[in-house]
Specification:
By secondary structure, the protein is mainly β. Helices cover 14% and strands 37% of the residues.
Length: 230
Amino acid sequence: MLNGISFSDNRLQISASNDIEPSVFKMDAPDRIVIDLPQTSFSEQFASALLLDDSMRGQFAVADHPSVSQVRYALFTSNPDTVRIVLDLKAPSPYTVTRDGLGLITIDLTESTAVTPFPSGGSGKKIVVIDPGHGGTQPGASSKSKKVEKDFTLAVGLKVQALLEQEPDIDFVLTRTTDVTVSLQDRAKLANDLKADLFISIHGNSIDPPANPSGSETYYTRERAFHWRM
């Protein structure tokens, strides 16, 4: 079953409930990369995170990307089921395909603007995963000025990235760098696969009146106890 799709940092990630051997190929006029997932259908988890119409099709735009305009997905064939995912390109782009053997498929665009590979931990540096909450079809809370949480969290996440770039002993990865939908499961799986030393999830919580709290809020665990700080 297909559980989620996300696109960030020149990287398409496909999360499934089991290992799948995809068929990946390029097409032109217009340029696109096609990923077929045999014997696969959409899970309820997928349908709750990304839009699917009555014909089992959907798409989401990729904003401000030099090569990719949108990601499309559909139940391409049935009996047996095959899900097709399409990266619509503005220009041809080479790519690589990797699988972790547990259901995570990664398509990396290997053009000159591609990001460096994810840190492996072998360098001895601490690995930090920065997780800007919400995004894409999940806007989160709204502020008094009508700004949505997903924009706030992304802005903060990019500021944290800029600060960590100055730390030579830290490697870091963002779960998203644009306005895309990333499932909770994919965020956690990324951190677990990297064996991250620290996972920082950024949110801007709200509460109904008459309560009117302010300031920062931090959640963490220690010795199986759950704490919070205001």
